[in-house]
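Whiteboard transcription, Tuesday session. T.W. wrote the structure tokens on the left side:
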């Protein structure tokens, strides 16, 4: 009977012990509870560990969050990296934007380069504009060159105009040369007129020579007329 009583006492003590352990484990600073939680959190698939990490990563100053962001931004196709780059490139004084623009402008078919060149060429003192104009003017069929030449030739003291006139006047069938000769020959003291008259008078069929002879024969004391009269007297 005494043994039976001690067994009953033990069975009565067990619920009390379990209840006491439960109260202890419900206490946050209970070593056993902490030890159990630590083991769980050290397991990679532990819900508590995931929950703890999630809370940490939701904090802006969390080292884990920074580490994760750092890994993501190190990847070229990372949305965070692209978003960060986009924000930087939208800033006018951003080195990345300047670098991107420089790469684009170094490409010959880049719209930005064309736009930049167009703005520069629209400036009157732009070296690019001068260089472009020079290249165009060096081309024989360039409208700018032709227009420039036309303006120069319309100026009386233009070297091009004078040079063109000189070449034309050196040509025998040049209207300018003929016109110049005509003006000179119409002048009484013109060497060309005298030379032309001399050549004509040396010709037997020259009208000027015949006219001159006729005038001379009309003078009574001209030797030619006297000679003619003497010949006529001899015939009679």
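and on the right, the sequence the group agreed on:
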């Amino acid at each position: 009977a005494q043994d039976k009583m001690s067994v009953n006492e033990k069975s009565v003590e067990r619920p009390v012990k379990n209840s006491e352990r439960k109260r202890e484990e419900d206490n946050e600073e209970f070593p056993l509870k902490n030890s159990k939680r630590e083991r769980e959190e050290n397991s990679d698939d532990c819900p508590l560990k995931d929950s703890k990490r999630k809370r940490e990563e939701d904090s802006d100053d969390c080292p884990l969050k920074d580490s994760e962001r750092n890994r993501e931004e190190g990847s070229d196709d990372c949305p965070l990296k692209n978003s960060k780059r986009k924000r930087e490139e939208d800033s006018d004084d951003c080195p990345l934007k300047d670098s991107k623009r420089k790469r684009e402008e170094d490409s010959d078919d880049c719209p930005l380069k064309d736009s930049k060149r167009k703005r520069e060429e629209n400036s009157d003192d732009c070296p690019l504009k001068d260089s472009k104009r020079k290249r165009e003017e060096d081309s024989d069929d360039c409208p700018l060159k032709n227009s420039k030449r036309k303006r120069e030739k319309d100026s009386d003291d233009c070297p091009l105009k004078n040079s063109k006139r000189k070449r034309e006047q050196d040509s025998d069938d040049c209207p300018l040369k003929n016109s110049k000769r005509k003006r000179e020959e119409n002048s009484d003291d013109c060497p060309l007129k005298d030379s032309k008259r001399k050549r004509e008078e040396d010709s037997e069929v020259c009208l000027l020579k015949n006219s001159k002879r006729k005038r001379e024969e009309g003078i009574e004391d001209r030797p030619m007329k006297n000679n003619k009269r003497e010949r006529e007297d001899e015939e009679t």
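Someone added at the bottom: Residues 110 and 204 are 84 Å apart (CA to CA).
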